[in-house]
Recover the amino acids of this structure.
């Protein structure tokens, strides 16, 4: 055999020459995938193995809380809507009330009666009682402003502790309307013959109010430390004096001494109703234990008869 017959044909692939091509084919198949797919596959692996960041955990926690609080937020929105609705209604009611008050003010007929609170007892009161008097005067002012027949309101001998307390706690008093606040004594402002001091110690009892007169109320909170002082003052000054006809209509558990604002309000109510009994019972506080005089007599008779029955029962036993 010649050497030429032993040489392999270069065009016939052998087994050894084909085996290296397999990984090349596989490599070609893998390299045939798109870059996006390779990147996606890589990112999937990263997500599987990469731990969650702190920011992501916070975000997830917030999302969870937001979902959990959904009902609470809905409830709060509902409450807010209801609150706004109530506020609108209240505003409407207030507006209507203001219109009613304006209509009422148009119907007001001022009285010519002068009503004076005498503040000349300032040195007889401790500060605690001065503060009480201040509150009573505030009540008088408020009631007179809304009355159907407001009186000509005076504060006289205004100064001392009372003025200091008003400056400290009620600076708006300087802007009060429909009131004369004077430092002078009432005797310097009103004719002597027009003055009538209202005092429960007077033997004279009012039956009617004379709207040409000026009635004086003692501005004193003394807890009965200065009994009869206003009556004595009226007598010494030689001016008229009288007491309200309280005893003709009312039976009371306490003395017939009333607070400044109670006397003031009773007079305002009488000017409107022209009925003393109605005026007394619409103003007097329950703590006074006031009952109509006829009913009080009936109750006392009933109480006495009850005691007699108890006594007779006990005797029979």
């Amino acid at each position: 055999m010649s050497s030429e017959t032993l040489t392999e044909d270069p065009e016939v692939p052998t087994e050894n020459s084909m085996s290296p091509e397999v990984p090349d084919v596989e490599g070609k198949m893998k390299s045939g995938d798109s870059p996006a797919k390779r990147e996606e596959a890589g990112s999937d692996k990263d997500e599987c193995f990469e731990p969650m960041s702190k920011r992501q955990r916070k975000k997830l926690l917030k999302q969870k809380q937001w979902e959990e609080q959904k009902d609470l937020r809905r409830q709060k929105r509902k409450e807010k809507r209801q609150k706004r609705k109530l506020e609108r209604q209240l505003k409407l009611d207030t507006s209507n009330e203001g219109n009613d008050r304006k209509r009422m003010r148009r119907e007001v007929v001022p009285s010519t009666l002068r009503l004076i609170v005498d503040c000349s007892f300032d040195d007889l009161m401790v500060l605690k009682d001065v503060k009480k008097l201040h509150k009573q005067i505030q009540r008088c002012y408020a009631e007179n402003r809304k009355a159907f027949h407001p009186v000509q309101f005076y504060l006289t001998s205004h100064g001392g502790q009372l003025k200091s307390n008003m400056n400290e706690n009620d600076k708006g008093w300087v802007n009060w309307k429909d009131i004369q606040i004077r430092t002078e004594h009432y005797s310097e402002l009103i004719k002597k013959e027009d003055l009538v001091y209202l005092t429960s110690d007077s033997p004279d009892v009012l039956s009617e109010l004379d709207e040409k007169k000026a009635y004086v109320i003692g501005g004193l909170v003394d807890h009965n430390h200065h009994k009869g002082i206003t009556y004595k003052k009226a007598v010494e000054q030689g001016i008229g004096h009288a007491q309200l006809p309280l005893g003709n209509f009312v039976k009371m558990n306490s003395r017939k001494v009333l607070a400044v604002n109670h006397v003031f309000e009773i007079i305002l109510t009488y000017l409107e109703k022209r009925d003393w009994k109605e005026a007394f019972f619409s103003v007097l506080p329950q703590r006074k234990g006031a009952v109509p005089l006829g009913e009080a007599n009936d109750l006392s008779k009933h109480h006495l008869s009850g005691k007699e029955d108890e006594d007779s029962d006990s005797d029979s036993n």
About this structure: The CA atoms of residues 269 and 279 lie 5 Å apart. The two ends are 168 Å apart (CA to CA).
